[in-house]
């Protein structure tokens, strides 16, 4: 998910203005001289190393083997269908399923990689709470079935039969839904961070900061928050970390790429459980009732963190500012 465009190309595209020039080009991390592509299908990679790794792990299965895009390849059909279901499509998030099937299909030792996936939580519902993951609810059921049939025809391999039934495919969706981590990389954000860190004379620094502020405010008007190369990723270790509404650590992307970091928010002693928040910074400050509602809908659990247990006697009130989903207050 490394951005392939330069920061300048990024801003020109997002503002639909081909004349914008950004200063301090040395802060842009995109190195086009290292870019390469798959000879057969033309998929672009940030480096030869990245292409070789993809080839070794999954690209031989995903490769369309032609550079012409006429919409008939199963991968194109899956992507197009996804875009029709969602806007903005963030089509990367459907490609994680294609990558999972391709990884297994291409692996020499299929049982080893299947074992890895079996280590992630993959419940579709929490029977004690009588709740089902919101992606699997009535509104989404038809979409899931359409996608399942497409995946069956594109990747129907014997080793993955357990995910090809309606229940099995739902459990795969729940696996990504409850363990997946959103990743966004943006050439502009990387440039802005590095440019902001430059050691410059005061007047020059203020001018640069003003330029960056203006860029972001224009971007907000033009494209909203949709700036990044976005997708979902599964991190084996990070997905083992439980949620707390008063976490002692947080997840961050220090380099603006897909390398994840878990950073302490307070002192953590030997033997303490490391916890992160599955809720956004803003949502984690809401009432216990609102937090639990969101965690039940998205992650299928009744939060047992220390903060929730301490607030167990609080009345079931919803925070003034409700979650953006606008769900019923159940
Ligand atoms: C991404 S996994 C976290 C790792 C998981 N505990 C494991 O053993 O693999 C998320 C699941 O962990 C459990 N979980 C995480 N935080 C929790 C909390 N605060 N209270 C209760 N269950 C929690 C829930 O079952 C949730 O669906």
Q: Describe it for me?
A:
The protein is globular, with a radius of gyration of 22 Å. It is mostly helical and 330 residues long. Mean pLDDT is 86; it is low at 324-330. It has helices spanning 7-15, 48-62, 74-85, 92-106, 110-118, 138-155, 166-179, 187-196, 202-223, 288-299, 306-310, and strands at residues 36-37, 44-45, 125-126, 131-132, 181-185, 229-233, 249-252, 261-264. It has a domain at 7-182. S-adenosylmethionine binds next to helix 7. Residues 121, 178-179, 239-240, 242-244, 299-301, 303-305 line the site of S-adenosylmethionine (SAM). It comes from Cloeon dipterum. This is SET domain-containing protein.
Spatial order of the strands forming the largest sheet? 1-2
Radius of gyration: 22 Å
Q: Percent of residues in beta strands?
A: 5-15%
**Cα distance spanning the termini:** 37 Å
Helix tally?
A: 11
Q: Which ligands accompany this protein?
A: S-adenosylmethionine
Q: Note the run of SSEs as H and E.
A: HEEHHHHEEHHEHHEEEHH
- Main β-sheet: number of strands, strand sense, barrel status? 2 strands, antiparallel
- Tell me the helix content: 40-55%
Number of β-strand runs: 8
Low-confidence stretches: 324-330
Structural class: mainly alpha
Mean pLDDT: 86
Shape: globular
